Amino acid sequence: MMYVKTFASFAPGLTELANVYFSAKDALTMGTPRKPLPETEEEATTRLALNVIWDRPTGNGVDWDMCSISISAYGVTYTTRGGITFGWRVYPEGSQEYPFLGYRFFVTHAHIDSPDSSLAASAQAAG
Q1: pTM (2 d.p.)
Q2: Domain residues of the chain, as ranges?
Q3: What is the residue-wise DSSP string for the chain?
């Protein structure tokens, strides 16, 4: 299962993603709790790419380092060693027939369907 939500602009979607998933917030603030979340796609992508380059583990000590990133013209997918994947896509993706509608943010994990998944509970609470 993957939790997906579409936003008309980038910053509100990124903020909700960070609020739903601690490790996304940690990656986006580069493990510095006082650092604000990025406000643009460029800044968010840069921070995530730097995490991959520097192979930073997350601050919660769950050992989600050894991450990877996939960057395209239509979005970003960031994956941790633990299998959590999150990111965003431009919606609709690359269609010249349809106007830009916003950003589709997503998060998933192999065990997200587990009854005790805190990630699933957080995503469901956020709608």
Answers
A1: 0.78
A2: 2-126
A3: -EEEEEESSHHHHHHHHHHH-HHHHHHHTTT-TTSPPP-SHHHHHHHHHHHHHHTPPPTTSS---S-EEEEETTEEEEE-TT--EEEEEEESSS-SSS---EEEEEEE-TTTTSTT-HHHHHHHHH-
